[in-house]
Amino acid sequence: MKQKVLMQAALPDALAAALGERYSLHALSALTPTEFAALAADITVVVTNGEAVVTREFIASLPALKLIAVFGVGYDGVDVAAARDRGVQVTHTPGVLTDDVADLAIGLMLATSRRIVAAQRFIEQGGWRQGGFPWTRKVSGARLGIFGMGRIGQAIARRAQAFDMTIRYTSRHAQPALPYPFAPDLRELAQQSDFLMICAPGGDATRGVVNAAVLAALGPQGMLINVGRGSVVDETALIAALDSGAIAGAGLDVFADEPNVPAALQQRDNVVITPHMASATWETRREMSRLVLDNVNAWFAGDPLITPVP
Fold first, then answer.
1. I need a labelling partner for 294 at 20 to 30 A (CA). Which of 4, 137, 230, 270 fits?
2. Considering 92, 229, 235, 285, which one is annotated as catalytic?
3. 22 three-state secondary structure
4. Residue 276 designated active-site
5. Is the pLDDT of residue 208 over 90?
């Protein structure tokens, strides 16, 4: 008899198919409360995605649960403390998506500073026949501040070096091995930056820390780029900063209440928005899927997990 696995949130079709071929896969969204209650005692593994919420109550509702495998590098939606308390291990998919997220971060920085989306609208709406497009802002040689210097932050820094950017960062801890100056305070980092790049994870420790004071420090020539988590930015403060000209623009791949993006962030010439797609390439999603499957297989085989969360 196949082991039972619960799919708590949406997964790529190929990953769901691979899990379903090897295990008895049950999608939570397709279960009635009665069906879930009947199944709960047999579920030892839950597979979810990086945007889903896995609460203490949900974990407690699965008495046999031993593994939560997250399709994504971020796991702030999972109550890891509750999992630890119940002896449940958690895995994620770090490393394999680093390059794609860093690539999109640089793309957002360029698109925002050079107003590429607005320039396309300008042509499509006939503006070029009336005159030239307004001048934009230079990236090469500018100052880049990175909030969150993990794998992704470091990959962005390496790419930014090719643009001769001056790089500073702040993170949980200074990393003396890195060749970039450390700013102990986020507001100070913003003040020293033309572009403030958010790569920090979500969770209570970072919720809303990019606030009105940080945006004011970034200043009217500064731009905010976020490829970390939407919760890190106070969206109300961001909208107010854009409305008042306190900052020059923003490039955003993540939002506080996805997929609901505030109307005030849409249809703006100085804001570029994408639908949390930084890791969404065929190549990377295949590798993420492989890593999820490898972690699940390892657990059922009694082998060490490949990528447990720190």
1. 230
2. 229
3. helix
4. yes
5. yes
